[in-house]
Design brief:
Elements lengths: L3 E13 L11 E13 L3 E5 L5 H5 L3 H9 L2 E2 L6 H7 L7 E5 L5 H4 L10 E3 L1 H8 L3 H6 L11 H4 E3 L5 E3 L9 E4 L6 E5 L8 E8 L2 E7 L5 H5 L15 H17 L5 E3 L3 H10 L1
Parallel strand pairs: 3-5, 5-6, 6-7, 12-13
Antiparallel strand pairs: 1-2, 1-4, 2-3, 8-9, 9-10, 10-11, 11-12
This protein binds zinc ion.
Zinc ion binds next to loops.
C-alpha cells in the first residue's frame, strides 16, 4: 500500500545560522518545528511528532524555563496542531497513532493536547532517559512533564514492531520496524542526536518515497556538505560520534538515492520544497 504524507509546522525558533551549520556566520535561520500527518488506507492516520505547543510554553520546571530562554520559540494561533489538523479535515480524536521521533521538547511540545491515541516511541530511548539524573536529564532536554498523564497506558514500543529487512537499494540502511504492517511506513534508527531517535521512511507510490529524518540533521546542508552544527545546537547532541556516523549514512544514502527526499524536521527549505511538489 501507499500513504499520503502532509507536512506542516507547529511553531518555529529563530536562530543564528552558525548554531546549526558551521560556516554560516551571519545568516539568520528560521527553524520550524515540523510535524507530519501520514494517511494509511488501513492503519489510519499516523501523526509524526507534535512540534512546539502550549504545554511546552507553560511547562514550569526550571529546566523547561531555561530551555525556553536559550531557544525561544513562537507558535502563532494558526500554527497550533489542532488548527492544522482541522484544516486537513481531521479531528484530534481521529489520529490512530502518534509516532515520536524522539523526546526533545520541540517534538513532544503539543503531546499533552493529543488525546487517546497510542504513542509509538523508542522504549530503549525512554528507559535510558529515565535513568538520567536531574542535571543530565536537563542537558538531554527531556522534560517528563510534557508527557500526558496517561502516557504509560498509551505507550507502544517501536522495538516491538516486526522488523523489515531493507534491500540493497536502501544501503547503507539495512533494516527498520514496520509501523503499518505492510512495509509502507518504516521506522529507521537514527542514533546520535538524542536517545532513541527514529526517522520514518514512507512509500508514497511505486518507487516514490520520502524519508522524514527528524533531527539527524538540522538542515539539508548538514547532509549534503556534512556541515556539522556549532554550539549550542552541537552541545545538545547526545552522542557526537553516533551523530556523525548517522549523518554520514544519510550523506551516502542521498548520493545513492537522490530520488528520495530527506526531510530534516527543522529545515525550512526541505519542507517548503516538499510542500511545493505536492
Ligand atoms: Zn531534537
Amino acid at each position: 500500500m501507499t500513504v499520503d504524507v502532509h507536512l506542516f509546522c507547529v511553531g518555529h525558533c529563530r536562530n543564528r545560522a552558525w548554531l546549526v551549520e558551521s560556516g554560516s556566520w551571519f545568516e539568520d535561520l528560521h527553524l520550524p518545528a515540523m510535524a507530519a500527518l501520514i494517511r494509511h488506507p488501513k492503519a489510519g492516520l499516523v501523526l509524526f511528532d507534535t512540534g512546539y505547543g502550549a504545554p511546552l510554553a507553560r511547562a514550569g520546571s526550571l529546566a523547561a524555563r531555561l530551555y525556553r530562554r536559550i531557544l525561544p520559540f513562537q507558535v502563532r494561533a494558526e500554527d497550533a496542531i489542532p488548527v492544522h489538523l482541522r484544516a486537513l479535515g481531521v479531528g484530534l480524536s481521529e489520529i490512530a497513532t502518534i509516532f515520536l521521533s524522539h523526546f526533545h521538547p520541540d517534538h513532544i511540545g503539543s503531546l499533552r493536547e493529543m488525546p487517546a491515541a497510542p504513542i509509538l516511541h523508542s522504549r530503549a530511548g525512554l528507559e535510558a532517559l529515565g535513568k538520567l539524573t536531574g542535571p543530565q536529564r536537563a542537558r538531554a532536554a527531556f522534560f517528563p512533564e510534557l508527557l500526558p498523564a496517561d502516557f504509560a497506558a498509551r505507550a507502544r514500543a517501536i522495538e516491538e514492531l516486526a522488523m523489515v529487512e531493507l534491500d540493497e537499494t536502501w544501503r547503507p540502511f539495512t533494516a527498520g520496524y514496520d509501523v503499518a504492517g505492510d512495509g509502507s511506513i518504516v521506522a529507521i534508527a537514527l542514533p546520535g542526536h538524542a536517545l532513541g531517535q527514529y526517522g520514518l521512511l514512507c512509500r508514497k507510490g511505486e518507487n516514490r518515497w520520502v524519508f522524514l529524518v527528524a533531527d539527524a540533521a538540522w538542515t539539508r546542508r548538514n547532509i549534503s556538505d556534512l556541515a556539522l552544527p556549532g554550539w549550542p545546537a552541537g552541545a545538545l547532541i547526545g552522542d557526537p560520534a553516533a551523530f556523525r556516523a548517522t549523518l554520514k549514512k544519510l550523506h551516502e544514502f542521498q548520493r545513492r538515492r537522490p530520488d528520495v527526499p530527506l526531510i530534516p524536521s527543522h529545515c525550512e527549505a526541505s519542507i517548503a520544497a516538499y510542500q511545493h511538489e505536492q
